[in-house]
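WARN retry 2 of 3 for item q-0093 after timeout on previous attempt; input resubmitted unchanged.
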Amino acid sequence: MLRQINIAGPVPPFAQPLHPPPASRACTTTRPVGYAAPMGEIDRLVPSGIIEQWVFHLRRQRSRAADTIWLIDQGFTMHDGKNGVPTQDATARYRQEQQTVIDEVTELLKLYDRINLGKDIPVADEPPR
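OK item q-0093 returned
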């Protein structure tokens, strides 16, 4: 099964002509030969197996972040350092980064379920806070 993904964004500089076409090179098409068409929305089909791999990766990433938070809650610390010498405690910052990973991945998985199942369902494997 293939899924369609819409990718939209601004026109990159390399896709825009550097100079307008000379008047002597009049052309019957809507754009001159050799000039790229402005980029708009691009439709691409992504195999469902690739989507499933992404979802598997996201669940694994969320699980690792939850494990890291559990270790920090058990008393482990993270330190910034140089050459193996700790310089400052980074535990609070690192814990917040991992909590952000959990929150963002959970939202992506809810979106995935909503697209595939057509409704909002609770994420069963959501780690506790």
